[in-house]
Design a protein that fits this description.
By secondary structure, this protein is of the alpha/beta class. The protein contains 13 helices and twelve strands. Strands 9-8-10-7-11 form a five-stranded mixed sheet. A three-stranded antiparallel sheet has the order 5-12-6, with helices on both faces. It has a two-stranded parallel ribbon with strand order 1-3. Helix 6 links the parallel strand 8 and strand 9.
Length: 342
């Protein structure tokens, strides 16, 4: 009888363990599947420029499950500016990333890059700017003459500077540029080794936090008003072979963008969770500043839209300034069939 009891107990224990194993296996399997029950597709995403608050929406899309719901397991890596992001995506080391659209036009129109496709706007107006701090005797674009500025070699701020200088009445030959990296530029400014840095206008709170001084900003948008800001790109190959996948990813990322703008402090905290060096207050402030650039009267309430006519005006502006070596059209780098509709 005791032997029978032990046998029954052992069988019960084995059954229980099997159930626990099945439940555990089911849970793990669920973690590896998207909202449609299919296995998650691995995707590598680059931020535009380091891991600042302005790029936190990608972390939001990941942490809030928007990527997973769309069927993606996303690895997020820090980008190093427009030229670098294009090279990395076209080279196959990443699948998606935001670039400054004007920078993309310059890269493509001057033969420096090809085989990438723009699939959505992130900002409806350019956020490119030269940023300095009080005490540098810089208040107007003309004051940049004789000064030393730092930025990454492929940053749109640096690539677009000759055009900005020409339109703003600055002799670009009297401005010295030195190389820097996305994550160290603000520290370079704080150390006093340069007079200004290439930066987005939304970087003001972080500049203030790092330098302990009041930022002075010279926005490119004051002399070039038709230019878009960042835009999401992928490779021409991926856009052609997997258009529906591109649309799903874009929708999930833009959902993260919309959530981040509506909940800047939560977005900053999620960035801090993933990037320990984050200063949450500065990151949240960046998002608050960025909100006004994400929507415009042209886009209405929709996020991510691109207007063919506006892009054509941007191209005309660049051509008129002598910044493009060849004539290009918007549809040469933008796949309007994949862009969200207004």
């Amino acid at each position: 009888m005791r032997r029978l009891t032990r046998t029954v107990a052992a069988a019960a224990l084995a059954t229980a363990l099997a159930l626990v194993s099945a439940c555990s296996s089911g849970s793990d399997d669920s973690d590896a599947k998207g909202g449609d029950g299919k296995a998650l597709e691995k995707v590598t995403y680059l931020t535009s420029f380091g891991n600042f608050g302005r790029d936190s929406y990608a972390w939001v899309a990941k942490e809030k499950g928007f990527f997973k719901e769309a069927g993606f397991d996303v690895e997020i890596k820090p980008g190093q500016g427009t030229g670098s992001v294009i090279q990395t995506v076209v080279g196959g080391q990443a699948d998606f990333g935001p670039i400054d659209l004007t920078g993309g036009l310059l890269q493509f129109g001057n033969g420096a890059a090809k085989d990438f496709v723009v699939v959505a706007a992130i900002q409806q107006r350019t956020m490119a700017a030269v940023v300095t701090v009080e005490g540098k005797n810089i208040a107007t674009p003309k004051d940049l003459e004789g000064k030393k500025l730092a930025d990454t070699p492929t940053s749109v701020v640096r690539q677009l500077f000759p055009t900005y200088a020409r339109l703003a009445g600055v002799d670009a030959s009297k401005v010295t540029w030195v190389n820097g990296e996305a994550q160290t530029l603000m520290g370079t400014l704080a150390s006093g080794t340069v007079d200004g840095i290439g930066q987005f206008v939304v970087g003001q709170p972080t500049v203030a936090a790092v330098t302990k001084k009041k930022p002075v900003v010279l926005p490119y948008s004051e002399v070039m008003q038709d230019l878009y800001g960042n835009a999401l790109i992928t490779s021409a190959k991926l856009a052609k072979e997997k258009p529906e996948m591109v649309k799903r990813f874009t929708a999930a990322l833009l959902k993260g963008l919309e959530y981040a703008l509506g909940n800047p402090q939560e977005a900053a905290d999620l960035l801090k969770k993933n990037v320990p060096a984050t200063v949450p207050a500065a990151a949240a402030a960046e998002l608050q500043l960025m909100a006004g650039y994400v929507r415009s009267s042209n886009s209405g309430t929709a996020i991510g839209t691109l207007d063919n006519e506006r892009v054509a005006k941007s191209i005309a502006l660049l051509q008129g300034a002598g910044a493009l070596k060849q004539n290009i059209t918007p549809d040469q780098i933008i796949d309007f069939s994949l862009v969200p509709k207004a």
